[in-house]
Amino acid sequence: HIMVPPKEKDQLTFTSHAGEEFIYMLEGRLEISLENRVEILEPGDSLYFSSHIPHALRGLDGQNAVFLDIIS
Q1: Is-contact 16 55, C-beta < 8 A?
Q2: For the chain, what is the radius of gyration of the CA atoms?
Q3: 0.90 cut: is pTM over it?
């Protein structure tokens, strides 16, 4: 599993890479910024997207976000 710490919006670092990505939330709340859209994921939520899209992640509510991350 992956753990993403909380951080301020101005600390976000965008990345992109080859492949596709599937996130399945386990604990906490995750904010994922994808180009011009922002998604908030909670335990049990999932998201599938092209990893070519620049994306940045941060935990919310002062807590780590914990999730499974499958990249293919």
Answers
A1: yes
A2: 11
A3: yes
Dihedrals φ, ψ of 4, to 5°? -115, 125
Q: Which residues of the chain have pLDDT under 50?
A: none
Question: What order of strands is seen across the sheet that includes strand 30-34?
Answer: 37-41, 30-34, 55-59
Count of helix runs (H) and strand runs (E) in the chain: 0, 7
Q: What gap in Å lies between CA 25 and CA 2, rounded to an integer?
A: 10
- Chain-centre distance for alpha carbon 35: 13
What are the distances in angstroms from CA 55 to CA 4, 28, 38?
Answer: 13, 19, 10
Query: For the chain, what is the largest distance between any 2 Cα atoms, rounded to a whole number of angstroms?
Result: 31
* Cα distance between residue 13 and residue 31, in whole Å: 13
Q: Name the amino acid, one letter, at 22.
A: F
